[in-house]
Amino acid sequence: MRREKESFHRICVTKAIANILILTAYIVWAVPCSYMNAYYFPQPFNAFFGAVIGWGPYLMSGPFTQICLAVNRAIAISYPHWFDRNHRIPYTKLTLYGLWTFALLISLPSFIDGCSYLFYPESIAWGTMDTPCSRTLTDLFLTGVITMSIFSFTVNITNILKLLKMSMRMGNSISEDASTARKKRRRAMFVQCIIQDCTHASDCFINNYLYTFYSAQWFQFLCGAVSGLFIILVDGLLMTVLHRKLRNVNRGASRVSTVHSIHVS
In this protein, which residues make up the domain named 7TM GPCR serpentine receptor class x (Srx) (predicted)? Predict the structure, then answer.
């Protein structure tokens, strides 16, 4: 499954790059603006960093890469021999390049006057403009994110059910240690898909709708800035912790399998 791991690695790197771009926008723009309590660059700069925070990289950090990971797992489970072939076409690279291009194109409408996603230093938060164009884009964006999250979640649950079915078919043909390792992988996958598929959809809802329930500055700050940073933190920690555990589980299962095969021979 070397090719599967290569595809997974590329998708994770793409997610990490998108998260770094978002964090950079916070550091370069939001922090100085909050300190000075005014825009220190022209309005187009605010719209540009808003597009980074709320559009292109945001989509690559969340919904787009989540779908890629879910589909990558589905292909690995349903068509494992496909990964062992020497494909002339780098499907994963082309898919990621295409998604980056699409994400950047989607960001273009946010540069139109009255349609931008901006940082407001008075509330220390990001938010949409109170215009028909901005509200329409927000509704379309939220609908798209929720739809993609549901699709990714459905594919991931299907993957888990397939793995469970395969494990039941194998029955007693594998050792107890290998069976335990499989259960840990399924449990980790389930936790990961639940959290990652829901975080960005929840953040969109909080940032675009929940913040309107209370006008206090601290509440606006929590909904508009802390929420966005928190999902990036959770996403990064989840990828790091779970996959470190999975690597340890896989190594343990490999050692058990090797020892068992030597003993049998």
Answer: 3-243
pLDDT tens column, 49-83 = 989 888 999 999 889 999 998 898 888 888 777 66
Q: Which of the pair, 171 or 239, is modelled with greater confidence?
A: 239
Domain segments of the chain as ranges: 2-264
Query: Which homologous superfamily is 2-264 in?
Result: Rhodopsin 7-helix transmembrane proteins (1.20.1070.10)
For the stretch 188-195, contacts whose Cβ atoms lie closer than 8 Å and that sit 24 or more positions apart, written own/partner, are 188/242, 188/245, 188/246, 189/73, 189/156, 189/159, 189/160, 189/163, 190/156, 190/160, 191/238, 191/242, 192/238, 192/242, 193/70, 193/152, 193/153, 193/156, 193/157, 193/160, 194/153, 195/234, 195/238
